[in-house]
Amino acid sequence: MTEPEQFWARVEPGLSACWFWRGAVSRDGYGKATWHGRTWRAHRLAYALTHGPIPAHLQVCHACDTPLCCRPDHLWVGTHDENHADCTRKGRRPTGARHGSVTHPASRPRGAMHYNAKLSPGQVAEIRQQYRPGLSAQVAHDFGISRSQVCRIVRGARWKET
After folding, report:
1. Which residue stretches of the chain are H helix?
2. Which of 6, 21, 96, 158 could form a disulfide with 152 if both were Cys (CB 3.0 to 4.6 A apart)?
3. Number of domains in the chain
């Protein structure tokens, strides 16, 4: 069996419109295949085998929005921006209640756990105790943060969990 035949043997044309990859799958849900010693995403290799080389800096996008689909007529090449515009147009962008910061809040470091945090929970409590209208500049200076950050902390827009 030739290499292209070996690749297509792992693609299941099936009864649905999509042709599903039945080989190895990466953590993000896309098929992966080795071709001439290089690991490819299966849909990119399917496109290259069918349509020829993929132009540099272009992505192989799915018209069907199915990461495991390798059906050549479901694949098209486009820039990163075109792929994102397609995603937005089809309503697949995770925004609002579907955004990862909402659906998986534990995956987003907050407060003192954030890599860029300048304050500890104790300092935040102290800021809230010391704050009085007209004193935000002094409190900000004492803690090395901006006046607007002091106001956000006092309002509860920042450091909500403390």
Report:
1. 3-9, 42-51, 80-89, 100-103, 121-130, 136-143, 147-155
2. 158
3. 2
